[in-house]
Amino acid sequence: MKEAQPRTIFLKDYQKPPFLIDETVLHFDLNEQGATVKSRLSVRRNPEAELTTSDLTLDGVDLELVSIAIDGVALSEGQYAVTEEGLKVIGVADTFLLECETLIKPQEITCLEGLYKSSSMFCTQCEAEGFRRITYYLDRPDVMSRFTTTITADKTLYPVLLSNGNEVERGDLESGRHFVRWEDPFRKPCYLFALVAGDLLNIDDQYVTASGRKVSLRMFVEPQNKDKCEHALSSLKASMKWDEDVYGREYDLDIFMIVAVDDFNMGAMENKGLNIFNSSCVLAKPDTATDSTYQRIEAIVAHEYFHNWSGNRVTCRDWFQLSLKEGFTVFRDAEFSADMNSRTVKRIEDVNLLRTAQFAEDSGPMSHPVRPSSFIEISNFYTLTIYEKGAEVVGMIHRLLGEELFRKGSDLYFERHDGQAVTTDDFVQAMQDASGKDLTQFKRWYDIAGTPVIDVDYQYDEQAQLFTLTLSQSCPSTEGDADEKPFHIPFTFALLDSNGCNIPLIQNDDAVFANAPTELVLDFVETEQTFKFQHIEKEPVPSLLRGFSAPVKVKNTFSRDQLLFLMMNETDGFNRWDAGQRLSADIIQSIAEDYMHGRALNVDARLVNAYRGLLVSKSIDKALLSKMLMLPTESYLIELADEANIEAIHHARNLVRDTLAEKLKIELLRCYQENTDVGAAYSADFNSIARRSLKNSALNILLSAGDSDALVLAEKQFVSATNMTDESAALIALVNSDFVSQRESALNTFYAKWKADPQVVEQWLSIQCTSAKSGTLEAVKRLMTHEAFDIKNPNKVRSVIGAFCNHNLINFHNLSGEGYQFLADNVIKLNKLNPQIASRLVTPLTRGKKFNQERQALMQAQLHRILSEENLSKDVYEVVSKSIK
Ligand code: ARG
Ligand code: ZN
C-alpha cells in the first residue's frame, strides 16, 4: 500500500505562533563521528496567539534526543513525546527555560540542509526549514530570537569557527580542542542562523560606512582559492556604498563575513553577518572565470548583502511571503547591476530569462502567484516566479510611483517594520501610504498566477491629427472566471516619427505643447482602454511597453518592415533589441513552417541587411550590439510556439545563423579583429565585456557554419587566450563545429590544464553536454563515469544533467525518448540523496504541453515511473504529481 500523501499547507490557515523564544543559547561539539548540539531556549507564551494550547510543539527532523529538561529538571517519560516531525512537551508553564541535547550526523547528510560537511569543513544551510535538522525549535520565520553560539572542535582540523554576529570569547580546551563564542545582537528567525568550521584562510578588507563606522570585511576560503577573492570583496564594497546612496541603508554589525563552500544547493545564503556562498558564485580570477561569472558574482554578492535590510532586519511572516524579501531584493540587485554596468544590457538579460523560463513556469503545472496560497514543500517555491516576477512587481511599483516616492515608500517600510516579520501586503501598504497612490487594484499582481496578454490596436487619423491607442488585457489563468478583473499595468509608451525621433505626447488640448513629455507611463487599468494623442502631424510608429514596463505578453502587431525600422531607429534600447528579436523570431518561425511542409527554405534578405547595418554602424553602443547579434534562443522559440517542433526550430535557426555567416563573413571577421585586444590586461568593465562578447559571437557564428578561416582564429585564440572568457569561447566554438579532431584535442588540452580547478571543470562539463552534435547523450553518460563527476555535488549535477536537459534541446527531446528516460533515472537516484536538487532537475519533463502528443506521452510515462517510486520525497512528489495529466 502507498503511504499517506504529503500534506498541503495553506496560507489561509496561518496562525500566530503560540510560543515565542526570546533567547537561544546554542553549544556545538563538532566531532568526526557526529555533532552534539545543546540548546537553552527561553520560551514564553505568545500573548497575541489566537490559539492557546497547553503543549509546546517543536520542529525536529532526523535528530537523536539525548536529554531534555525544563527549568533545570529533567523530563521523565510521559512528559514529552518524540515524533517523525518533532517533539511535543506536554503541559508547559507560561514562561520557562527548555534545555535539550541532541545528536546529529553532519557527515551523513547528502541533502545539504541543516549542519553538514562539505569537503573538509562543517557548514549550514537553514533556509527555509533546515534548522529543524540541527535542534528542536520553532522553525518558522515569525519566531525571532537573540542567538548566542559556542562552537568547540579540534583546533588543528578546524582552526576557524564562525557563527552570526560578533566574536565575544575564545580559548583552548583539553585534548587539542578549542572554542569560540559568538553573539548576535539582532533578533532573527532561525533560518538566518549559520555556523562554519574549517581550516580556512581569510582575506581581509575594510569598509567605512557613511556615518563613519568601520566594518571589517572578511572572506574565508580554502587555501587554494586565496587568489579568487578580490572580485567578491570589491563587489561587496560597491554594494555597501550603493545601499547607502540609493536606499539610505547602512550595515549594522562590526564584521561582515563571506564563506565559499563547494557543495551547496543554491547560489548563496544571507545568514546574518555570515553569508555562505556556493563557490561557483563567489570565487573568480581572470584566468578561470568568464565575464558572465564575474557579473553573476557581482549580482549575487549584492543580493545577499542587500538582504541584510530586505530580509533580515525586516523578514517574512511566513513562507507564503517569500517574495517579500526575494522579489524586493532581486529588484534591488538588478538596479545595482544596472548602475554598475549597462542598464539596457541588464534589462535585456533579465527580460530574456523572464520571458523564456518564468513565462514557461507560469503556464506550466507548477504555476503559482507571487504570493502562493498553498504548497506541499516550500523548497519547491524558490522559483523564477517568486524571484524574477516578484522583482518585476516591485519594479512596476517603482515605475508607477517614480524614484522619489518609491524611496519615501521604502524608507517608511524599513522604519515601520524594522525588527518585524511581515507580509507583502505590509510592503504595498507602506508604498501606498508614503506616496498617496492607490495600489488596491495593483495587489492583484501578488495573488493571480499566469502571464497577462495585451492586445494592441491603434489608428492614425491624419485629418484630425489624432493617434488612438486601444489596449485590451486578459489573463489565461482567470479566463472565463466570473470575477475576472483587470490588472493595473504600467504601460510605458512613446511615438516615433519617420526619423526615429520621439514625438511630444499631448493627451488633452490644454496641455502646453512645449512641456509635453515624449514618453509616458500609461495607467492601464481597464479590461479595454483607449488613449488619445493629439497634434500628431504625420503617421507615427508606436513604441510599446518600453523597457518591458510590465511582465506581460504583447501580441505582435508589427510588420517586418516596421520591425526593421524599430531595429535601426528605436530610441529605447530595450525595445530596439526586442524589435530585432521579434524580426528574427518571425523569420525563423516561417522557415520552420516551410521545413515542416517540405518546402524550399530561404532566409529573408532583409534580416541579413539589418545585421549588416548593425555590424557596420559606427554609432551603435557596443554593449547593445553584443546582445543584438544573438539570435533568439531555442528555448524562447519554443515558448513562443503553441506546439513546438524542435527539429524544425533547430534547423531553421541554424539556417539563419549559417546564412549570416556566409553573407556577412567580411563584416563578422572585421568585427572579430576590431574587438580583439592583444596583450591588454583583463578588465571586467561592461565595455570590455561587450567587446569580448562581440568578438566571440562573431567567431561562433562563423565557426558553427564551418568557416575554415574562423577555425584558424579559434585555434589561435584557444592557445593564446589570457582570460577564461576568450579561452572558453574558443573551446565552445570548436566543440560546436564539425572539425572533429580539433574539437577533441581542445577538450583534452583544456581538461589536462584545468582538472584541479572545480569551477573550470564545471564549464568543461557543461560545454560538452550542451553540444548540439548528435550522440551527445552517450557522451553525457560517459562523463557521468568520469573522475570529474560527482553526483553528490549539485554544481556537477547541474553542469552535466541540468545542462543537457535544459540547454541541449535537440538531443534531450530526441524522439527515441532516451533523453527523458535518462532524466527520470537520475531524478530517481537523486530523490534519495538530495530531494531539492532532484525536484529542480525534473522541470524539463513537466514542459510537455509545448510538444506534440507523441512526446507528451513519452514524458508522461517517465513522470508516472518516478511517481511509482517508493519513498518519494515531498519535493519530488509535489512537482511530479502536479505534472501528471
Ligand atoms: N535566500 C537565499 C537567496 O535567495 C536562497 C536560499 C534558498 N535555499 C533553499 N534551500 N531553498 O539569497
Ligand atoms: Zn535572496
From TrEMBL:
Which InterPro entries is this protein grouped with? Aminopeptidase_N-like_N, Aminopeptidase_N-like_N_sf, PepN_Ig-like_sf, Peptidase_M1, Peptidase_M1_dom, Peptidase_M1_pepN, Peptidase_M1_pepN_C, Peptidase_M1_pepN_C_sf
Q: Which residues form the Peptidase M1 membrane alanine aminopeptidase domain?
A: 232-445
Q: Which segments constitute the Peptidase M1 alanyl aminopeptidase Ig-like fold domain?
A: 450-556
Q: What is its EC number?
A: 3.4.11.2
* Assigned keywords, A-Z: Aminopeptidase, Hydrolase, Metal-binding, Metalloprotease, Protease, Zinc
Q: Which Gene3D superfamilies match?
A: 2.60.40.1840, 3.30.2010.30, Neutral Protease Domain 2, Peptidase M1, alanyl aminopeptidase, C-terminal domain, tricorn interacting facor f3 domain
Q: Where is the Aminopeptidase N-like N-terminal domain?
A: 112-192
Q: Which Pfam families match?
A: DUF3458 (PF11940), DUF3458_C (PF17432), Peptidase_M1 (PF01433), Peptidase_M1_N (PF17900)
Q: Where do the Peptidase M1 alanyl aminopeptidase C-terminal domain residues begin and end? A: 561-884
The UniProt GO MF terms for this protein read: alanyl aminopeptidase activity
**Cofactor dependence:** Zn(2+)
Catalytic activity line of the entry: Release of an N-terminal amino acid, Xaa-|-Yaa- from a peptide, amide or arylamide. Xaa is preferably Ala, but may be most amino acids including Pro (slow action). When a terminal hydrophobic residue is followed by a prolyl residue, the two may be released as an intact Xaa-Pro dipeptide
> Hydrolase: present as a keyword of the record?
yes
PANTHER family given in the database record: PUROMYCIN-SENSITIVE AMINOPEPTIDASE
Family membership noted in the UniProt record: Belongs to the peptidase M1 family.
Q: Which NCBIfam families match?
A: pepN_proteo
The protein in question is named Aminopeptidase N
Organism, by scientific name, is Alkalimarinus alittae
Gene label: pepN
